[in-house]
Design brief:
single chain; eight-stranded mixed β-sheet; alpha/beta; seven-stranded mixed β-sheet
Length: 1008
């Protein structure tokens, strides 16, 4: 790359792939001496106007001197970066360090002049904004703190790039030139601008995959069957609105049509643009297909082919090469080893997946890293929608497979402002960038519910196909951090769909107060107990008796919803002997009409083997006879074995994650009078039926009745904007979903005011930084001694009780005289530290005689003083023993943890966690989040502790770790919290160079 005379080696870590504003990708890398021809070619394709704006004069071509200057850099004082696609330059940026007079300078000068040039064909794609982020990060690394740029007034696009960046700026006008100066330290506004651009770019990149105007299936078989041919059939049969092509190099040259679809031997032979290619050829042939697609201008790939990282080290390298090759052409990839994608929008109707029929349309977005789990999710949502009425369905579905490129983070960016998605359900087996996922999840959850189930959570390793960094945090800690970000964390696929069904079609509850009514006293009591187990506040169940009619249910539900002391209602119902389908329909209508009158409170139904009630609940707005209801098509999954829900003929795939409970949940639909409550946006009306795939049996008619059902029991599909009342086969499942909705609603209310990170005047941040730098100069990582620990913590207002070493009984006595009686004698050996239960601590020693006796007992029990490492410490006021910890995890970031000290807490795992920096509201909730929190607040008549002092301690530790990432671990144990004040009796601090962070700096895609 660079010559030996250059001052620095080629900085490979500056290379990065970025997503541009329009969803395409480009590669950013340093410019080297090998780029002379590329630079000249690039410049020749720039318009005269753009050249004029760059050089302030006509400049038709670059001289040899210019080329040398723009390709020879020392990577310190002179740096050039290029954005490339297909190996060719599309834009360049450079900085030159300058001194006070604007002349070339070297360090320690901290200002540089910056200039851009973007090829006209790529202007408006956000290339300059991305390059500015990267060149600013490079400059900060090289000690440059300010950029200066001179721009012609007519060059409004470039002025806007600088002005919109969010940095603190100074603008002046002199000699007909606009001069801009701005600092490079990130600001709140610059980060907000960067995150906003990141969201729009990544959302657009996913949108291009999910809303293509044309699709080519590469690897389509000539005969029915096989993966490629099946996907082609699925796309066609779903009624895809765009242009569809079948591609197979084995097609005869004279073949132009395959089962009604244009056929080509190569993507290059397609006459017209191709937005999306679905690749189903063997892995060995995929590189050739990627080349054809890239040269044809394909925007994205869905790679169904397996044999990549899922097959071992050789496949992992093949996967890396695939991603690098695709990015060379600016393409994004879903997969490899993917199940496919689905978009049910009537403007798209894309089923580019292995599911033989299009899922029913709805408002739920699905993301699954596993194809098998994806099948289970689609199947369960179908069954629980109740028949084939087209409600509670899917907006989009993405099965990412090995998620080599497009990940759950990208799909979250798309769902965040997708008007067709109200609830996001995700099955994750690994989280590649936990910091970013947490940030995106918090923003998404503030707008719409996000429900996540995580597989492989106890295995400690990600699936073979997922190349991600492992976190050292326990699963319980990761779950707590996700909940802090507003994620609804569930444990099974069943719970995932249960919660999604409720959140998609019911308003959020305003509190935990639950009314219970029904015709079974026992079922009501089970529901009552389940509510208490979930932390809800149930009212005594109202037993309507088994003689209750539909009118009785209507009246009782109406009264409960009108009660101001009720936030949600659970209706329990058991079958009424002899009434059959007509009784089910009447009850469904009664519940619907009562719920429609108060659309701001959620209603759930717990039913027990009610036959057609589940189907009637799902869609009925009227039970009047209807003439010849039009059949519709329901989704199915390949290789299905599970029995269909009662009243339907559709089959469903078995759930690999959790055994299907009998009686799939369904939903009831309020009639036209029901408005859309806050938090429950309206759903599109049922769409027109489409032709099913060959070999698939006919499905049920609307309402869940079979095609042969008498007209007298047919029902009308729900109207757009109506609420569905979800029905569950077990009280525990219904109440668990309601509990998650209550907790999420509470998080939404609190997220509106997240609190603040307080400032403390007594914090010595500069002194701490100097002390840390001096300590780290000794080595790469070290655990501080007692004195150093006390000094560092003291700079942040955390004062540790003094403890004096006592290697002999005489030393112990001298230490006690220094500290003053009463004292405590402690063994600090690693196996005895913080283990009062083992007898290594003696408290309230009032005089020297007691101290010497205790010393003798310890040495007799545990060994020589050198093994015990005894210390003497002054007694602290009595209180509750607690522990405070902070740790920096390379994947998840800095985490603050709190719990009570002792073996019981360790055994039960009763610790609460928050991401750092912690706000005052976080600190308040943290100490109240543990199950043993009542011990802090006056349990069984004890005196409440000084919670305010404890919260301040947590905030100070958070500030220390946030201000100094070199502090990679802090433990305060025990912290004795008394009714007035607290005492830190033990502390340890570990320092190390901070782990690299991939959530700071310029926007980049995961490296390969």
């Amino acid at each position: 790359m660079q010559t030996s005379s250059d001052r620095h080696e080629y900085p490979a870590h500056w290379e990065a792939d970025v997503v541009l504003r329009d969803g395409g990708t480009a590669r950013v890398r340093p410019i080297t001496v090998d780029d002379a021809e590329r630079l000249v070619s690039f410049y020749e394709q720039v318009s005269d106007e753009s050249k004029y704006y760059r050089f302030f004069a006509p400049y038709p071509r670059l001289s040899a001197k210019d080329v040398h200057r723009f390709t020879h850099h020392d990577f310190v004082d002179r740096v050039g970066l290029a954005a490339t696609i297909g190996g060719e330059f599309i834009a360049t940026v450079r900085y030159d360090r300058i001194g006070a007079g604007g002349t070339p300078a070297t360090a320690p000068a901290d200002e540089a002049e910056v200039a851009f040039l973007v090829q006209d064909a790529h202007q408006g794609r956000g290339v300059a904004s991305a390059l500015l982020e990267h060149i600013a990060a490079v400059a900060r690394e090289r000690g440059i703190r300010r950029f200066a740029a001179e721009v012609l007034p007519a060059n409004t696009k470039m002025i806007k790039v600088f002005m919109d960046a969010g940095y603190t700026q100074k603008r002046s006008f002199e000699d007909g030139v606009v001069r801009l100066e701005f600092g490079l330290e990130p600001t709140g506004r610059s980060l907000a601008v960067q995150y906003g651009r990141e969201q729009r770019a990544e959302a657009r990149s996913v949108q291009r995959l999910l809303q293509p105007g044309s699709v080519a299936v590469v690897g389509t078989g000539r005969a029915p069957g096989g993966v490629g041919r099946s996907i082609l059939d699925n796309i066609r049969d779903a009624g895809y609105t765009g242009r569809l092509y079948a591609v197979n190099r084995a097609f005869p040259e004279e073949q132009k049509i395959l089962d009604g679809v244009p056929a080509c031997r190569s993507v290059r032979d397609i006459d017209g643009p191709v937005d999306l290619a679905v690749v189903t050829v063997p892995a060995a042939h995929v590189p050739d297909v990627v080349t054809e697609c890239g040269e044809h201008g394909v925007q994205g790939l869905v790679v169904i082919s397996a044999g990549y990282a899922d097959s071992g080290p050789e496949g992992r390298e093949r996967q890396r090469a695939l991603v690098r090759q695709a990015r060379t052409y600016g393409m994004r990839i879903i997969g490899p080893n993917a199940f496919g994608i689905v978009n049910t929008s009537p403007d798209v109707r894309l089923n580019a997946s292995l599911a033989p029929e299009m899922p029913r349309p709805g408002r739920i977005g699905l993301f699954a890293q596993s194809g098998a789990i994806g099948i289970a999710l689609l199947s369960r949502l179908h069954r629980r929608g109740g028949g084939v009425t087209g409600h509670t369905g899917v907006s989009t579905f993405v099965s990412s497979g090995n998620r080599a490129d497009v990940s759950g983070n990208d799909v979250l960016q798309y769902w965040y402002d997708d008007p067709d998605t109200d609830v996001a359900l995700m099955y994750l087996e690994s989280i590649g960038n936990p910091r970013k996922f947490t940030r995106l999840a918090r923003r998404t959850a503030a707008a719409k519910p996000l429900v996540v189930v995580q597989g492989a959570r106890h295995g400690g390793v990600a699936p073979q196909g997922h190349a991600v960094r492992a976190t050292r945090l326990p699963h319980a800690t990761v779950s707590a951090l996700l909940r802090q970000a507003g994620v609804i964390r569930v444990d099974t696929i069943t719970e995932l769909v249960d919660a999604g069904l409720l959140l998609a079609r019911q308003p959020l509850p305003t509190g935990p107060r639950v009314a219970i009514l029904g015709n079974s006293e026992s079922l009501g009591l089970l529901t009552y107990d389940a509510c208490l187990s979930e932390g809800l506040r149930p009212q005594p169940p109202l037993d309507l008796t088994t003689a209750a009619s539909a009118d009785d249910f209507h009246a009782a539900l109406a009264r409960a919803l009108a009660d101001d002391t009720c936030d949600a209602v659970v209706v329990t119902a058991i079958p009424t002997v002899g009434e059959g389908a007509a009784g089910d329909a009447a009850l469904a209508e009664a519940l619907r009409s009562a719920a429609a009158a108060v659309p701001t409170k959620p209603v759930l139904v717990v039913h027990v083997e009610l036959g057609g009630l589940a189907e009637a609940l799902s869609a009925a707005t009227s039970t009047a006879p209807q003439a010849d209801p039009a059949p519709t098509t329901a989704p199915a999954a390949p290789d299905t074995t599970a029995q269909a829900a009662p009243g339907t003929t559709a089959q469903a795939a078995p759930d690999p994650a959790a055994e299907a409970a009998p009686g799939a949940p369904s939903a009831v639909t309020p009639g036209p009078s029901a408005g859309t409550a806050p938090g429950a946006p309206s759903e599109t009306a049922p769409r027109s039926p489409v032709r099913g795939a060959a070999g698939v049996a006919p499905h049920a008619a609307p309402g869940g009745a079979s095609a042969a059902s008498p007209p007298s029991v047919s029902v009308v599909p729900a109207q757009a904007g109506a609420h569905l009342i979800p029905a569950y086969p077990a009280a525990e499942r219904a109440v668990r979903a309601l509990g998650e909705a209550v907790a999420y609603a509470q998080w939404r209310r609190e997220a509106a005011d997240p609190g603040k990170v307080p400032e403390y005047e007594d914090i010595d941040e500069k002194g701490a930084a100097e002390q840390i730098a001096g300590l780290l100069a000794r080595g790469q990582g070290l655990t501080l001694g007692d004195r150093e620990t006390c000094d560092l913590l003291g700079r942040y207002g955390v004062h540790v009780h003094r403890a004096l070493p006592a290697p002999t009984p005489d030393d112990a006595a001298a230490a006690a005289r220094t500290l003053g009686y009463p004292v405590a004698l402690k063994a600090t050996a690693p196996h005895l530290r913080h283990r009062a239960d083992l007898g290594g601590v003696r408290l309230d020693l009032a005089d020297e005689e007691q101290l010497r006796r205790a010393y003798a007992e310890l040495t007799e029990l545990f060994g020589k003083p050198a093994e015990l490492r005894p210390v003497v410490q002054g007694m602290a006021p009595r209180g509750v023993d607690t522990v405070v910890r902070a740790v920096i995890d390379p994947a998840a970031g800095a985490v603050l943890s709190f719990g009570l000290a002792g073996a019981a807490t360790q055994l039960l795992g009763d610790m609460a966690h928050r991401l750092i920096p912690v706000t005052d509201r976080d600190a308040t909730s943290l100490i109240r989040s543990i199950r043993t929190a009542p011990l802090l607040f006056g349990w069984r008549g004890s005196a409440p502790v000084d919670s305010a002092a404890l919260e301040k301690l947590l905030l100070r530790v958070s500030r220390l770790v946030d201000d100094h990432p070199e502090v990679v671990a802090v433990t305060l144990e025990p912290v004795v919290v008394a009714p007035h004040g607290l005492s830190v009796l033990g502390a340890s601090v570990r320092l190390a160079p901070p782990p690299a962070r991939d959530d700071l700096g310029p926007r980049t895609m995961p490296a390969y």
